Amino acid sequence: MGSELSDYVAGLPRKRMAAGALFVDERDRVLLVEPTYKPHWEVPGGVVEAGESPYCAAVREIREELGLSPTLGRLLVVDWVPEGPYPGDGVMMVYDGGMLNAEQVAAIALPAEELRSWTWCDGAAVARLLPAALARRVAGARRARTAGVTVYLEDGYDVG
Predict the structure, then answer these.
(1) 3-state SS class at 20
(2) How much is the average pLDDT of 74-89?
(3) Residues 58 and 19: beta-carbon distance below 8 Å
């Protein structure tokens, strides 16, 4: 029986998973980063490693990408994404990074091999710099932060 269960579990589907954070400034602009390895901007965050929780992955990635050690707030978005530029479907999560103060902003230190730059963006700039599905996810995260809720999205679109 143990072998059959092991075989069954080994055959279950695997999903990509990533986690990031929505940081804002006093003008409610969103912090975006420009990776060296992608043709578009992103929210700070990255891939959830095997055996790592999404929350811990977001904290780790933000430390690696921005040099900050935030205490992230609640989960804002769970977004299922279909297969597209990457093989297989995935689940993306965005946590509330809160408002960064001047001291935190001054402490941002980007790893040159991974990130070119960062910037604050209003809604129009987010829509211009991000791929459409990611722009929808960020818009959903902004709505969730304002409303004090968590939203479930599919490819950035509200479900339900």
Answers:
(1) strand
(2) 91
(3) yes
